[in-house]
Amino acid sequence: MTLRRLKAIALKTGFWLLVAVLVLYAIFPFYYAIVTSLKPSSQLFEVSYWVDSLDFSNYVTVLSQPTFLAAIRNSVVVALSVVLIALLLGLTAAWALGRVRFRGRTTVMMIVLGVSMFPQVAVLSGLFEVIRTLDLYNSPGGLILSYTIFTLPFTVWILTTFMRQLPDELEEAAIVDGASPWVTLTKVFMPLLWPAMATTGLLAFIAAWNEFLFALTFTLTDSQRTVPVAIALISGGSQYELPWGPIMAASVIVTVPLVVLVVIFQRRIVSGLTAGAVKG
Amino acid sequence: MAGLTLERVNKRFGSTQVIDDVSMQIDNGEFIVFVGPSGCGKSTLLRLIAGLESITHGDLMIDDQRVNNLTPPERGIGMVFQSYALYPHMSVYDNIAFGLKLAKQDKQTVDERVRQTARILQLDELLERLPKALSGGQRQRVAIGRAMAREPKILLFDEPLSNLDAALRVQTRNEIARLHERLGSTMIYVTHDQVEAMTLADRIVVLNAGHVEQIGTPRELYERPASRFVAGFIGSPKMNFIQVTAEADAEQGCRVEIPAVGQRTLPLALSAGGPSETTLGVRPEHLIPTASESGEGLEIVNVEYLGSEAYLYMERDDGELLVCRTQAPSPFRRGQRVTLDFDPTHAHLFDRDGRAVPPRARREARPEPQGADS
Ligand SMILES: Nc1ncnc2c1ncn2[C@@H]1O[C@H](COP(=O)(O)OP(=O)(O)OP(=O)(O)O)[C@@H](O)[C@H]1O
Ligand SMILES: [Mg+2]
């Protein structure tokens, strides 16, 4: 009896220990960035694990740089556009792939999946040519186009999977009520696909927000850069100085919106999924 | 005027023929029920009429206008689905109003229609609720409300009661019958429950493997089934079938030789010719059991007591069961032996292809076929 109890306690301790390690592993870099960002530059290289001074000078430095503010604006524009376009195209594609019976449907699905397997570097030079031809070099348009290419496959896949789960009779009821495919999609399916759309939209947003390689390659001037590139290019007073304080402050500033978004949408996603689980 | 006409309607999915040359005429205001075994094409036929599937070939006419290529609302139909298929994120009000809004009705008309529909179906109290907060019977009524809000000429139901429990089924069945009375619109109703079919229908269409076996009033189907299939499908417990040899008899109709019963003469017009293999069909209520003292006859293997009546099951030599419906309480007991007889005026005879042998023409008309024969 006691042995069993002991075992239970040991298991529980082990479990929470594991959780602690995982949380530490995931959170610590971000936590350390916060701590560092709040230090004055004089204390920068003293190792400490607690916030022992509240010094916002790094934040002031970063936010007073017009290029950084422009970068945030660019990132917001690019990420939101990518989410909107990916959801719109994803939803309509999912309707076709999940609801309309046509020849070669599986093939299309496989191609869509296949496209998402190319590494970014492999398409970089080709995409560069495309963007030059379309005259989108050094503009948000080029980034929106290239990010959409990479977010669409999983958007389409996830939405198609969800779309297939909706009962056929629902669509037929809408048809009998006189709804066109577009009305059915927007008035009947979209409200029911809301959890799936929140999930895919969030993933698309994060992907676009964090992307570095394309952002570096397809932009030239400071005014067109997005946040990841802008942070990487923050430079100090001289060639030999890396301004860690402002870099950390900038990192915290751009991470906070993501955290907030995830927290907001996570609730919706969870509530949406449980509501869908009970048959309506 | 014909409300709805099907002319040699066919439907193929790939290479499988699901609906095979179906023709029928449905009058305005009629209540038509499609019955048939599972997979016979009832739902498909209904969906062809609705416009949810395309007709492979053949014509569908509503009010003498060909509607093959029209959308469901253009055809003026409303449909109630088996799973109700209510829009889960819309309130009862919005569910009913959805089609009206799409038909570009102005706000006031929509509101009036929705409230009127709700009043007819006693949904007034529930208008603001979401479907998930309704009971099965209430969801059913909302589904009907949604279908009838646009005042379609034709209302289609695909097994609307199959998700309800027995008591609610009887109640909703009654409500549908009353609704038909009140609206006067044409209704086509799919079911595999023959009680629903018998009680609701003006005329029943029996389908089998994609073709029409018989169309007729419940009474016609029960008393004069056109084929062995219909005879076996309509009626519960099922009609008893016995293999017999029959021979036409110009004077009295036809003579049948029944194993373990003997020779009987039936008032049926079997076509002339030598003795032929046929199937005799007798409904359970037309079998007359008599207790046999001498130990001959058949043994009763089971007695089912249902309160108002009782069913006796007799085993034949070949292992087949015969059913007999008697009054309850029944004087017979399990293990007892009985001899059976039947009323020849209520017997049916089916030829080798399963077609029913028609009844003999009335006495006045009798000389005519005889004259033609000789
Ligand atoms: N979309 C389809 N593609 C191929 N075959 C189909 C399709 N829809 C129906 N069928 C076939 O058509 C036949 C008739 O189907 P249907 O649904 O009309 O039967 P039913 O009489 O309504 O049966 P149940 O009583 O089980 O509902 C079935 O054999 C079915 O497999
Ligand atoms: Mg069916």
UniProtKB/TrEMBL annotation, chain A:
<keyword id="KW-1133">Transmembrane helix</keyword>
<dbReference type="Pfam" id="PF00528">
    <property type="entry name" value="BPD_transp_1"/>
</dbReference>
<feature type="transmembrane region" description="Helical">
    <location>
        <begin position="14"/>
        <end position="34"/>
    </location>
</feature>
<dbReference type="GO" id="GO:0055085">
    <property type="term" value="P:transmembrane transport"/>
</dbReference>
<dbReference type="GO" id="GO:0005886">
    <property type="term" value="C:plasma membrane"/>
</dbReference>
<feature type="transmembrane region" description="Helical">
    <location>
        <begin position="109"/>
        <end position="131"/>
    </location>
</feature>
<keyword id="KW-0472">Membrane</keyword>
<feature type="transmembrane region" description="Helical">
    <location>
        <begin position="244"/>
        <end position="265"/>
    </location>
</feature>
<dbReference type="InterPro" id="IPR000515">
    <property type="entry name" value="MetI-like"/>
</dbReference>
<keyword id="KW-1003">Cell membrane</keyword>
<feature type="transmembrane region" description="Helical">
    <location>
        <begin position="76"/>
        <end position="97"/>
    </location>
</feature>
<dbReference type="InterPro" id="IPR035906">
    <property type="entry name" value="MetI-like_sf"/>
</dbReference>
<feature type="domain" description="ABC transmembrane type-1">
    <location>
        <begin position="72"/>
        <end position="265"/>
    </location>
</feature>
<keyword id="KW-0813">Transport</keyword>
<comment type="similarity">
    <text>Belongs to the binding-protein-dependent transport system permease family. MalFG subfamily.</text>
</comment>
<feature type="transmembrane region" description="Helical">
    <location>
        <begin position="188"/>
        <end position="209"/>
    </location>
</feature>
<protein>
    <submittedName>
        <fullName>Carbohydrate ABC transporter permease</fullName>
    </submittedName>
</protein>
<keyword id="KW-0812">Transmembrane</keyword>
<feature type="transmembrane region" description="Helical">
    <location>
        <begin position="143"/>
        <end position="162"/>
    </location>
</feature>
<dbReference type="InterPro" id="IPR050901">
    <property type="entry name" value="BP-dep_ABC_trans_perm"/>
</dbReference>
